Amino acid sequence: MLVGVGLGPGDPELLTLKAADTLKRCDIVFVPGRLAAQLVEPYAEPHLLEFPMTKDTLVLQSYWEENADLVAEHARDGHAAFGLIGDPNFFSTFTHLRRIIGQRHPDIIIETVPGISSITAFAARAGIQIDSSFEVSDGSPVIDRIILKARRPGQIVNELGNEGFNDFTLAQKLYTDDEEIIKGKENMPKRADYFSIIHARKTRER
Ligand SMILES: C[S@@+](CC[C@H](N)C(=O)[O-])C[C@H]1O[C@@H](n2cnc3c(N)ncnc32)[C@H](O)[C@@H]1O
Description:
This protein is of the alpha/beta class. It has helices spanning 17-25, 34-40, 57-77, 93-104, 118-126, 153-162; strands spanning 2-6, 28-31, 46-48, 80-84, 110-113, 144-147, 167-172, 180-183, 196-201. It has a five-stranded parallel β-sheet with strand order 3-2-4-1-5, with helices on both faces. It has a four-stranded antiparallel β-sheet with strand order 6-9-7-8, with helices on one face.
């Protein structure tokens, strides 16, 4: 099994208890850089993988494949972790690594432990409060939307469908005993709990 572990934005005190526990339990922990290595060190010996910053796609691909094969080799028979800055599912090296492992080693089970992302952490340091809809961009086209307070999922996905969104996930009461994750427009209930989030994606634009 492979676990992508979010290490938070850089402060060792902003690494979660679950992340620390996962790092301690894993047989081997890989990291993509020195800051991630420092954050892992109190809990496990970090193994630094090289991901060169080059535009040569052939060189890049060979590094990615080599790293993916190495991580998969350890994840196949044991528990491997990959620690990274912020959260593993937002603009992360882990997303690319996960995709390549999925293509080359589809038998590997992959999970993630969320981390405090720079997307939320910056607000605390910069004294900024967000209380209405906002956009996060790295310059690429917008294909995802996240709706909070999604109490009327059926109505929401119908409206988003008219805007070109075609892939939907409803998540309720996450990380509690009553957690529920529902996928697909046709399965959306009329009503949901206040602690509900809908993720919508335009898959055709990928
Ligand atoms: C590849 S993304 C990694 C995002 C990360 N997975 C997350 O959840 O925060 C790298 C970008 O995240 C932002 N970032 C990450 N850590 C940061 C920090 N400690 N301070 C400011 N920006 C940060 C910067 O915009 C940086 O260019």
